[in-house]
Request: fold
Amino acid sequence: MKSSLKKTINMLVVEDDLMDKTMLQRLLAKSSLPIADIKYAEFLDEAIELLDRKKFDVVLLDLNLPDSNGIETLVRIVRKHPDVANVVITGECSQDFALEVVASGAQDYLVKGSYNIDTLSRAIYYAIERKRTDEILDRKQKNIEAIFDAVSIGMLLVDENLEVKRVNDAIRQMVNKDYSHIINRRVGSILCCINSTYDEQGCGYSPACAECSLHKIVESVIDSGKSAKKVEVQPTLNIDGKEVTPWFCISAEPVIIDKRKHVVVSIEDITDRKRTEEKLKETMELKSQFISTVSHELRTPLASMKEAVAIVYDGAVGKINAKQKKFLSIAKRNVDRLARLINDVLDFQKFEADKMKPNMHLNDISKLVREVYTMMLSSAKQKKVDFTLKFENNVPKARLDGDKITQVLTNLVDNAIKFTPEQGQVSVCVQHRGEELVICVSDTGIGIPEEHLLKIFDRFYHVAQPGEQIRGTGLGLAIVKRIVTMHGGRIEVESELNKGTTFTIFLPLTGKCATDVAPVETKEIRQNTVVK
Reply:
């Protein structure tokens, strides 16, 4: 046999029989193996002493020596020097004995009197290669285990019977148990689920275990071969005699080990995050309630102020001079501005709380646009802006909330008039394209810088303009987009500085609005199960 070993071989022959030793010497001398050095020993203690002093690649070992007999001879060599390859050479030739030899750590097995130079060379070669391969696999396994243990998130390897075969240190610390009380136990038992103490049989035998979400996740991954990602569960555990309800984020990946299905389960404790989210949610709800309460409380006195100013301004309670009218005009504008601010805040709060539900009916969009035109015409004339309408023939009716779309158009037209200089133009165009209505609100105003176009629909966002005096809530366009989206539509904007802006609204003629779509189903969190 021609050797393909890249390194030279240091060999130790342990044989006390002179004839067997002579035969090995003769065969090894003729071998093509790259042998660098051969040492001989007749006693096991002598062989171990040589192994202690020098690194050998392979040992040719007779099991029956003057100071040791049988399998124990091999066991002592393997225990003391596990990194060396062993080829056992003995007179015993039964298959059971050969299997016992390999199970005890030998890489190969030869029967005295039945091997030649080729079989001897092959046994030595493959023994060294097997040993090197085993060492590589062992290192990889240790590296994997080191990584497994280094992960801060809890990791479990679970078999088809839901028994835990491997865990990392994070799990051990989480449940405060030694590995001996974790391995080969079911998941609920090691996590200290309150249902695992239902009776002496432990996890899986309580009636509540049938609804255990963690069990369902693992079983589903085993059955389907598909992973589960970031499922949040809240088990009830009994840790050191105290009931606790932490939040866990569970992920599970299917793996095949020794031709059997397993699942790698990661368990991340997200209790702190969930508590923070709950506190934030409570804070946001309190904030929302406060804003809504204050806004509603302001509406009544503000309506009275607005009406009182209007009565005096119109001269209903007596004639007023020009100077008085000027100041009343300022008061009227600010009262109107405050009313719009309150309305915007209340509308946006409804959107945030998902309480803004559209009242969908078939509506004539042309009629709605004309109503907006009539309402906003006086503002356009006062600003000396040319305000026009353009309608395509035979525009069909559409299913929409007339009041909400009127609010959208009023907001867009009002902005267009505000930001268009005198002698400028504002137009509303209505068209029908396929299954959509297309409404364009265009102006020849100051325009919007390009870098702001992607942000103008964000809440509280303002586009600063040189010398700008007009300031709003920053909610108008955010509300516009919410309403359009709520209808299943979309809104686009095009603008050029000092040339104008065009907002284009696309609304579906038929079909359900976005809020009619059922929310994504969420798993029910049950009580008295591993995951409640």
Remarks:
- The CA atoms of residues 350 and 448 lie 28 Å apart.
- Confidence is low (pLDDT under 50) at residues 515-532.
- The chain has 13 helices and 19 strands.
- The longest strand covers residues 248-257.
